[in-house]
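Quick one: structure for this chain?
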Amino acid sequence: MTPNRGQYRGRFAPSPTGPLHAGSLTTALASWLDARAAGGAWIIRIEDLDPPRIVPGAAERIVETLARCGLESDEPVVFQSARGELYEAAFARLQAAGLIYGCACSRRDVDEIIEAQAGWPTGVYPRTCATTGAAPDKPIRAYRVRVPEEASRFVDRAAGPYEQHLTSDVGDFVVKRADGLWAYQLAVVVDDAEQKVTDIVRGADLLDNTPRQIYLQRVLGFATPRYLHVPLVLNAAGGKLSKQTGATELDTVLPMSELNRTALHLGMPRFGADSIPAFLRLAIDSWREKRQP
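Got it. Here's what it folds into:
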């Protein structure tokens, strides 16, 4: 299905595991600019589905920092933790279609099975519980969705054509843990559909997640948004800058400096603006020329 392009709807969906940093500001600014350049709406969704990793107060600090940078949600901020009924309904539809099965395999089990099966791709679940059923003496650890023996293709607005064979490259993937926690792959698909998101702008590290999400969109009858994966901000070691790799909180005293650094990373010039509104107006024009949503 193709979403209605009559009204662009974009989103920024941070996890509240710490304060906003340069990497997350890059995604926020890129998604905001893409929405504004298209004359559309931009919404913030807090992805707080992993309680052990959540930092108290982080969600509020993220929203406040974005506001200081001139990036405010056009609709009330949504929290995934309050949307369990939506995920449960989608899960039930997948079950009714015969696409869900319980898996009792631990990570160690999977590694040992893969090691024993010469030629099986590393990191790809070998469908142990799909073919034999979960061992009766082992508890269910997660629920997986069956993937088809076919390639999933889409065209990213930055990376161009991208293809992934779901069975050999990914394998049946987890959509729900046995403890009731929902997996990112299912939740993000349900949320984007329910919020009528037409365009997704996010970091390049999520490019290889997209075929799985497009598959779920298809089997659930949801529209598939357009995708744009922007370059990652890297740390000194050349890895992705993240909270786990020592990313520091943005300087909210001098947000213009942070915004200019982010714009440069996104391939825009340094703007000689004397205020955040002036900066954002120039950035929208530059983005429109560069990306043409």
